[in-house]
Amino acid sequence: MENFADAMPGRHWRRRDDGRIVCEVCPRECALQAGQRGLCFVRASDGTQMVLTTYGRSSGFCIDPIEKKPLNHFLPGTPVLSFGTAGCNLTCRFCQNWDISKARQFDRLLDQASPEAIAQAARRLGCASVAFTYNDPVIFLEYAIDTARACHAHGIRTVAVTAGYIAPAARREFFAHMDAANVDLKAFTEDFYHRLATAHRDPILDTLRYLKHETNVWVEVTTLVIPGENDSEAETDAMTRWMVRELGEDVPLHLTAFHPDWKMTDRIPTPPQTLVRARAIARANGLRHVYTGNIRDRDGGSTYCHGCGQRVIDRDWHQINHFALTDDGHCRGCGALCAGVFHGPAGSWGRRRQPVRLRE
């Protein structure tokens, strides 16, 4: 039986009559005997309680452009200190970060850092926010929340990059500490989630509704478009109609290109024209801000005013070349308000990516 003596006590669990510990962080509700780990690999039972085995341990830290999360309407042009841990509560066969999210070896966890050390590092390095990313932060909920509290005490904002597969009670606690989120809506069919991620679609839709209507979290949505799986015009039409109806026309959507990886190396990369066509469908359905990602597409990467059509943020990859919004997000041409979180002029971090070490 594995020993979890050094692990941090976790929250959101219950004990079954047969003695098993049931994790209530995500809809899987893994029922664990003493010494067992959940599917995510990082939440486990020590026989008396649920524990988190990766508290304070990271797969690495990096300063990224906020647009890489991707977030195009949240403090544009600013640097974000990004980190993750190991493991994941989905089993996506197409995972683009599989070396981290599918890790079963803790030698992947190179850096150790307390929540306070992360917050101080973000301030010292000039980062406007800290992002919990690379693997899904819902599985290291306690570490993410403690880090978010420390960041807020230093005036640093927090970002969750997540698949949104989280149970209601844990969802309320987790997102109460987040300023922005990019939610990965992997597809719009239950079949896709069942076959390729061993999960269900509707909990993700519930998370999106919750974020939009019951929180002040700024939310953007990403869909990785995979040839032959979720790239049909009919699915794009259904998904974006749902977004307009349930989330509103101002929630940005990022349609990103798939590259063969992990257990789906038999597929071709997403043709750029597929993303361009999907973007056109989404905009025709009423979404105001639709972006293409993982390809070079100036039109698909830029932000346009919904009032006058002016290009108000001109982007080349993650580099901002022109910014025509006021400090609070109004179009300098017609005065229409662009939805998002804008404070002052755009930052100048550009497309740089800078690894950093935070070992204490």
Descriptive overview:
With 360 residues, this protein is of the alpha/beta class. The chain folds into three domains: 45 residues, no CATH class; 239 residues, TIM Barrel; 47 residues, no CATH class. The chain contains nine helices and 20 strands. The strands form five sheets. Strands 16-15-14-13-12-11-9-8-20 form a nine-stranded mixed sheet. Helix 7 runs parallel beside helix 8. The longest helix is centred in the middle third of the chain and has 14 residues. The protein is globular. 49% of the residues are buried. The model has no long low-confidence stretch (mean pLDDT 94).
What is the fold's blueprint, element by element?
Elements: E1 8-9, E2 13-15, E3 21-23, E4 31-32, E5 43-45, E6 50-52, E7 57-58, E8 60-65, E9 79-84, H1 98-101, E10 111-112, H2 115-124, E11 129-132, H3 141-153, E12 157-162, H4 168-175, E13 180-184, H5 190-197, H6 202-214, E14 218-225, H7 233-246, E15 253-257, H8 272-284, E16 290-293, H9 298-301, E17 303-304, E18 311-316, E19 319-323, E20 354-356
Parallel strand pairs: 9-11, 11-12, 12-13, 13-14, 14-15, 15-16
Antiparallel strand pairs: 1-6, 2-3, 3-4, 5-6, 7-10, 8-9, 8-20, 17-18, 18-19
Helix pairs in contact: 2-3, 7-8
Radius of gyration: 20 Å
- Mean pLDDT comes to 94
Poorly predicted regions are none
Largest sheet: 9 strands, mixed
User: What structural class do you assign from the helix and strand content?
Assistant: alpha/beta
- Estimated helix fraction: 10-25%
**Helix and strand element order:** EEEEEEEEEHEHEHEHEHHEHEHEHEEEE
Q: At CATH's second level, what is the architecture of the largest domain? A: Alpha-Beta Barrel
Gap between N and C termini: 30 Å
Q: How many domains make up the 3D coordinates?
A: 3
In what range is the share of β-strand residues? Answer: 15-25%
Just give the CATH class of the largest domain: Alpha Beta
- Spatial arrangement of strands, main beta sheet: 16-15-14-13-12-11-9-8-20
